[in-house]
Amino acid sequence: MKLKYFLSSLFIAVAAMTMTSCDSDRDDNPILDTSNMTTEFKLNTPAYANQLIDLATSNTVNFTWSQPNYGMTLATIYSFQLALSEDFKDAVIDAEGNETTPANYADLSGSFVTVSGGIGASAINRAIVGLAGWQEESEVPASMPVYLRCKAVLADNNVPAVYSNVVKINVVPSFKVSTSFAEFIYQIGDDSEGWSIAHPLRSAVVDDVFNGIYTGFTYLNTEFKFRSHQDSWDAPDWGYGGEEGKLEAQAGNITVPKPAFYKMEVNMEELTYKLTPIASIGVVGPAQAGGWDGDTDLTYNPETGAWEGEMTLAADEMKFRANDAWDINWGGSLDNLTQDGANIMVDAAGNYKIQLFVTYEGAHRAVLTKL
Are residues 265 and 187 in contact, defined by beta-carbon separation less than 8 angstroms? Predict the structure, then answer.
């Protein structure tokens, strides 16, 4: 409890210096009421606290908490810290500013602006492995308790952070910190009637494991979410995380900037997403009239889900690319097109109907039908 009283004194002292009144407590110039501040806020003990959480097979670990009492409504950013013991100890710094003893806890990636959220299981596992200092897989226990607390920081002030109580959970750690991601997550939204069709995003692979960075392509209408199962809403799913580009478990729908075809990118460890509008996809290369400098555009067909067009092709090379640029392009075999793949050889000159199906890496394909 010494840390609690130290933080309380520091919090009130700094708040008094940084939030002093000008002349009056007006609505347009509110004053932070230090008498109502709490040095601790409540991190709720989850229902699963006594169960074992396998970090190698889980996506997120979900928590809820209360809001600190600042005496007024203030924008607050929440994050999590993890330790291997119940006591959280800060780093020891000497008079010259050198760290003589490191902190015994780790800051977990990801932040939240509401009082609930999911922490990436791989982020938890990575913190455990780093704090434990295991050098070999044989050192990893079959299960272990770990301790978490929530940190609250005011978005627009230099007031010191407020920390919650500590909650214990029980986990099955993994020596291989990158094995906690599934191969696919799924986008689902009002682009299909009744939210009935889920579109896969596939994780990239690093060192033969899925790294949790997912990519997929589809048409987005007005609202959607990401979920972990193709055919069900079994938790977890992920929605709007309080600001554009951030995700939160079991949150509300994400609003699409405008109806269009998009490249979707999700970082499941950081709980972030990015939407890149695909304004055009075209054929480029000497097999078509524009050569490598100009595209012949295709048109998206919502009925088939393909980018389609008819054009005259020479017996030469071609590729597909988006937005008249090379950031997003596909080549290689027609039945397995890949980003930055090799040039595609058209065997015979003629007039062709082209259908390009862009979905996720490993499933992109094109059909060239000679007319």
Answer: no
